Amino acid sequence: MNNRGYITVFMTLITAMLLSLVIAVMNIVDMSNAEAQLAIAVNCAESDIKAGYDRYIFDNYHILLIDSNFDGRKEGYLEERAEENLRSNLGDGYSDINVILTDKTYIMDNDCAELKKQINDYFIYGMSESVIDNILDNTKEENPLNDQVMEGIIDSADKESKEIEQKQSNDGKEIKKSIDDKKTEDEDPRDSVKKYTDSDIASLLNPKGGSFHDYEVDKALMPSTNKKTFEDKIQVDRKFSDMNRFKDNALSGNGWMDGLKESAATLSYVSNTFNCFTDGEKSDKALNLEIEYLIAGKNNDKDNFIAVINKIIVIRLGFNYGYIITDVDKVTKMSALAWKICALTPLAQPAVKYLLLGCWAYIESVADAYSLVRGNKVAYLKNKTNWKTDLSALTHLSDFCSEDDDKGLSYKEYLLILLTFHLDESYYRMLDIMQMNVNLNEERNGNYFYMSDCITAFSLDVNANYKGRNIYISEDTGY
Prior knowledge:
The protein is α+β, with helices and mostly antiparallel strands and 479 residues long. The protein is 53% helix and 8% strand. The chain has helices at 2-50, 55-61, 74-90, 109-126, 132-137, 147-171, 190-193, 198-205, 243-251, 257-262, 264-273, 290-296, 301-324, 328-341, 349-372, 411-419, 423-441; strands spanning 66-67, 94-106, 454-466, 469-478. Strands 1, 2, 3 and 4 form a four-stranded antiparallel beta sheet that branches.
């Protein structure tokens, strides 16, 4: 009997222990399931927030981001939205749910690193081939004008001047040349060129009906406001009176080839996404000349057009000068004209000859720009057959507006070349354009949309009570 009592007590204890163990395991499993269920619910809440991306920006610019200001409701709205989502998915077993939005990554953080990342992703997955390929294919020949060539030209002019000086010394008299002012070909072409301003040249080239919007950019509101801009050295002195200054002008457009290759993703994205002058009118855009704005950053279409046209002329100046100094007929003609101009100062003749050639290369470059803005392609390098102009071309440019050159480059492709000099600022200006167009096209209940409020990644820190026990989960997410 006593043995049976011991066995009964022993079995009762074993059963109690097993029941306690089972209950403990069930509690552990229950808490584990509760944590897993909360983690799944948090993931769903994050997905719900991410689904609130700005649709206009994604549809037009292929960039995913969330306006953390959410039409003036601030970040607290996103936290409330996440809490409501959790309560709906978790049921009655959870209480005291609290959500904090943390570790936000903004589109402008780290010098627009998130924007650059999404542009690269779009390039890889969204575009089958790069628009840069055509530029590279048609610019395989190296630009013949470089520092070494220019130094040779300057040295040659100096050498010729010394030879003239020696001849004068040996002869004991000055070399005199007569000038026939009645002949147009004897006039100094620099006089007609230097009277033009940047604005005059742009007006001369602008086709009738060119689409400039009246929109004025309020720089104080733009993401690019605090971005230090690149010191622009791409410019031209239309006086053509100083060889060293002309050297700087002619070479200022060089050095873009490496930048073109390194920035293929960004340049292809810009070409596919933003509008330019030759793309035609886009009435739903704040600025019609968007790529021009990326380059120049001026306040309106007209000023951006003026700035970009003059940059294109400088780029073309280097190519055209590289050819014209090898054209014997043109060099001979300018040498004779230089003698007429320098009749009283013959020592200046060699330098004036090369400056006159530079002036003619500039006139050819203006004609190139005239053709480009009319939708034609222009040959990368010139030769006898594709050189267009004479020295009086500025007065009748329409005569030199040739048809497409199959191996030439278009206006937009020259814009992409220019953009390689302005890439750092261009990312911020892309955000400027997105911000302007969102505010122009989206109804936001009177709340102004700022790119500086936009996030691309965040974390949800969640605390919840489950049957008297606190559960904490932190989940990171992003596009």
